[in-house]
Amino acid sequence: MTATMHTPETQDSNAVFPMTPRGPLSAELMTLLSSAPDGTESSVGLAIAVESALADAESITRDEDVQLSLFILYGLHYGSLGGVSAEWEWQPSLVAARTALERAFESELRATIEVPGLPEPTRAAVAQALTALTTAEGGPSLSRFVAKKATREQLGEFLIQRSIYTLREADPHSWAIPRLTGRPKAALVEIQTDEYGGGRVARMHSEIFATTMREFGLDAAYGHYLEQAPAVTLASLNVMSMFGLNRRLRGAIVGHLAAFEMTSSIPNAMYANGFRRLGFGTGVTAYFDEHVAADAVHEQIAAHDLAGALAEDEPELLGDILFGAAACLVVDGWAGAHMLDSWTAGVSSLRDER
Predict the structure, then answer these.
(1) Helix, strand, coil shares, percent, the chain, to 5
(2) CA distances from 16 to 82, 92, 257 (A)
(3) How far apart are CA 169 and CA 204, in angstroms?
């Protein structure tokens, strides 16, 4: 299947790139989506492919076929799959397939990820718990490696891996806006307004990152490097999409965003230093420099006014807020560790380069 994927603000909508199946499930999906739905298509083959893929997967998070299939299914909601009929978005068999994959994905994450003890459902206590979670000592640091050691080739791989989310930056978290009310909703809109450039296209973070890619010499078309992105990189975006698109997981998407913002400033400063170390100027570093300042403000809003206020308003969501924050750190950590481990071993982190 050849799909056209487009994000109008960052690319030529006529760009086309190949999407190769990574197993029977993604192959079944691509075959189905290659035509317009007419009501006569059978859901049996897709259901069987989903069941088989889940049975065969040793790890949902790292299974290439499952994660690409989730990426495709979420792409229907984002509008990322150009050339695919919009009528597929809510086709029952696809919704059923996505629900089954999400159920397995969420179950694995909840079984794997350690969530800290729950604080009192107050703004101050939740912000303190999130601070403790996001400042805990971790393992080897991707950002320090980029700052001190990464080669030009590795910096290119870093941008390619990050493009899977960052050329869509803010979109997964924005699904939460209509799912919130009152103080948390206002706080989320405040954060997202900055992410979308305050109404100025050139200041949208996705657009600034597209400029970074072009200045580095890469293609900024959304999905251009999808073939090279491993399952764990797709999972980093898919977990956001799963949290954002399911109202019952609104606590998790809020916690995810809080952790995302609270762990952004220092790493982005290091990323910028890594590019400057190899002679790149502001055309490449502007994206990272922007996040050093912006996310220092966002982290306070996200911890107190978004996550903290949501816990006060809906205490029953407190567990999911902490789960979402922990999931952000763990899944993004897995994606970062994949890059760092690959480079330390002297190999590429990209799929078709390994």
Answers:
(1) 70, 0, 30
(2) 9, 28, 31
(3) 9
What value does the mean pLDDT of the chain take? 92
pTM equals 0.93
Distance separating alpha carbons of residues 293 and 311, to the nearest angstrom: 27
55, two tokens: 């049975």
The yes-or-no verdict on residue 31 having pLDDT over 70 is yes
Q: Which two tokens stand for residue 244?
A: 């954002």
Closest CA relative to residue 68, chosen from 238, 264, 309: 238
Q: Is the pLDDT of residue 7 over 70?
A: no
**Torsions phi, psi of 18, nearest 5?**
-80, 140
The domain limits of the chain are 2-112, 123-353
Q: How far apart are CA 214 and CA 7, in angstroms?
A: 15
Q: Tell me how far the alpha carbon of residue 104 is from its chain's centroid.
A: 18
Q: How confident is the model at residue 18 (pLDDT cuts 50, 70, 90)?
A: low
Residues counted in the chain? 354
Longest dimension (CA), the chain: 58
Tens-digit pLDDT profile for residues 94-140:
999 999 999 999 999 999 999 999 999 999 999 999 999 999 877 67
R_g of the chain computed on alpha carbons:
20
Q: Give the residue carrying structure tokens 């809510």.
A: 90
Determine whether domain 123-353 maps to CATH 1.20.910.10.
yes
Q: Residue 17: enclosing H or E segment and its boundaries?
A: strand 17-18
Report whether pLDDT(4) > 60: no
